[in-house]
Amino acid sequence: MSESRTDTPAKPAYPVTDRVQEALRVSLRGCEELLPQSDWVQKLARAEATGTPLRIKLGLDPTAPDIHIGHTVVLNKMRQLQDLGHQVIFLIGDFTSMIGDPSGRNSTRPPLTKEQIKANAETYYKQASLVLDPARTEIRYNSEWSEPLGASGMIQLAAKYTVARMMERDDFAKRFASQTPISVHEFLYPLMQGYDSVALKSDLELGGTDQKFNLLMGRHLQAEYGQEPQCILTMPLLEGLDGVDKMSKSKNNYVGITEPANSMFAKILSISDELMWKWFNLLSFMSLDEIAALKQEVEGGRNPKDAKVLLAKEITARFHSAAAADAAEADFNNRAKGGIPDDIPEVSLSGAPLGIAAVLKSAGLVASNSEGMRMIEQNGVRIDGTVISDKGLKLEAGTVVVQVGKRKFAKVTIA
C-alpha cells in the first residue's frame, strides 16, 4: 500500500522551534518508520504554536489477557509523547477482536467471544497503566462507532477500498498465491481499524512493523472522509530472551510485566550482551546520551553485566518498586553463589520412597519425567545443594530443597 496515494497539499508552515526539534527526536527514538516525517514536524509545530495537543492513537486487540514487555515498546513511545503534552488514546479493539486481525497470519484467526474480550480488556488496561499515566489517558472502545455503522454503513465503508489494493497486503498475497483460504470478513479488519482513525480524528497512530498496512489504511480513509490524514509511527518487534524470535508466550521467550520481581530481574539478566543495547533503546527511559555513554564504558572495559543489571533494575522497578528491584538483585546474587532463596514454594508429597524424576515433575520443576532425566544427565539437578547424577535415586521420607537449573527451587516434604 503506497503512502503517497494519501498525500495531501501542504498546510501553512508553522515555525520549527528547538522544542519541535526535540519532540521530533523523541518521536524518532527507536522507531522503525515515521511517515511522512515532514507532515509530523508540521503537526508538532502547529501544536506548539496553537497550544492544541495532538491526538495520538494506539489500538490493541485484547486477544490474550496478559501483556509482556514486548508489548510495552509501543506503550513506552506513547508515554514519551504523553509526557510532551499530547493526548494519547488507548483504544481497545473490542469490536475488531470479534473479526480477528489477519496481520502476519497464514490462516484465519479465530474470533473471540464478547465475554473473553471484556475480561481481557480489563486486564490489558490495568497492565498498560503501569506504563501510561492513567490520569492523562483517553480510553476508548471501537464498538462505540463500529456497531452503530450497521450493514449499510459497512457497505459504504467497504466501497472506499478496492480488492486489488487489499491484495497488495503481504500476508493476503502470500495466502492467495499458496491457495490458503482467506475469509471475506478478514478484509473488514483493516477497514475497521482505519475507520477508528476517522472516528477519533487521530493525528498519529502507533503500531508494530507488522501493522503498517493497517496504519496506512487509516490515512487513506481519513482523506476519503475529508480529514487531515494521520501520520504513522511503527516500532520494531522486540526479540525475546533467545535473541532470535520476537517475544512471545508461545515461544516461551518472554518477560511478563506482572511476573514476580525476582523472576523478571533474572530473565532480563539472561539476555545476550548484544541484545541488551536494543532493549536499552526500546525499553529504558534513560536518555540516548546516557545509553551511549554507558555503551562506551563497556567498550572501554567495563563489565557488560554492570549495564545489564542497570537495565534489569530499571524495568523491575517500573513494574514493581525500587525496593523490589534491589531485593531481586540480592536474590540473584545469592543464587549465583549457590545460595537458596528465601521465598521458594513448598510441596508435600506422599508415597516414600519416590523416584527423583517423579519428585521433580510433582514439584512443578520439570514438565515431564523425561525432562527430569535430561536435567540430571546435564548435572542440572541439586538436592540440598549437592549435584545429583543418579537417575535411579529414590528419596525417603523427609524434607529436602530441590533445585533445577539456576532459578527453579522447591522445598519438598515427602511422607
Question: What features would you describe in this structure?
Answer:
It is built from 16 helices and 13 strands. With 415 residues, the protein is of the alpha/beta class. The protein has three domains: 3-235, 3-Layer(aba) Sandwich (Rossmann fold); 261-336, Tyrosyl-Transfer RNA Synthetase, CATH 1.10.240; 346-414, Roll (Structural Genomics Hypothetical 15.5 Kd Protein In mrcA-pckA Intergenic Region, Chain A), CATH 3.10.290. A six-stranded mixed beta sheet has the order 1-6-5-2-3-4, sandwiched between helices. The protein is globular, with a radius of gyration of 25 Å. Residues 1-6 have low confidence and may be disordered.
Using brief descriptors, characterize the structure shown:
16 helices; Tyrosyl-Transfer RNA Synthetase; 6-stranded mixed β-sheet; 3 domains; Tyrosine--tRNA ligase; alpha/beta; Rossmann fold; single chain; disordered N terminus; 13 strands; Structural Genomics Hypothetical 15.5 Kd Protein In mrcA-pckA Intergenic Region, Chain A
What topology emerges from the helices and strands here?
Elements: H1 18-28, E1 33-35, H2 37-50, E2 55-60, H3 72-83, E3 87-92, H4 114-128, E4 137-141, H5 143-158, H6 163-166, H7 170-177, H8 188-200, E5 204-208, H9 212-224, E6 231-235, H10 261-269, H11 273-283, H12 288-299, H13 304-319, H14 322-336, E7 346-349, E8 354-355, H15 356-362, H16 369-377, E9 381-383, E10 386-387, E11 394-395, E12 398-404, E13 408-414
Parallel strand pairs: 2-3, 2-5, 3-4, 5-6, 7-13
Antiparallel strand pairs: 1-6, 8-11, 9-10, 9-12, 12-13
